[in-house]
Amino acid sequence: MAHYRASDSKREHFRRYLEKTGVVDSLTSVFVSLYEQQEKPANALEFVKEHLGAVGLASADTENLLQEVSDLRQRCAHLEEENKDLKERLHQYEAASEDGGAAN
Fold first, then answer.
1. Which pLDDT belongs to residue 58?
2. Any idea where this protein resides (predicted)?
């Protein structure tokens, strides 16, 4: 009988852990979404995997990726401006060398 209570206690502790960390809410949300599908997917496991993956990306990963995109766009704009300046300088040197070569 004591073994049964210890097992129930561990099970209850694990259940509280899953609730506290949001696992129960995430799974419930995915299962409700699957239940509400008009046409059930052929592979329910793939449906659950896809929707759980989307849930996990919604927080820190998405913010990090958005920040990275913003940083890369700024870097790209800076490099485009630098490229433009270098092309202008190159054209100036080419024009100067053509003028100098024609004078000789």
1. 56
2. Nucleus
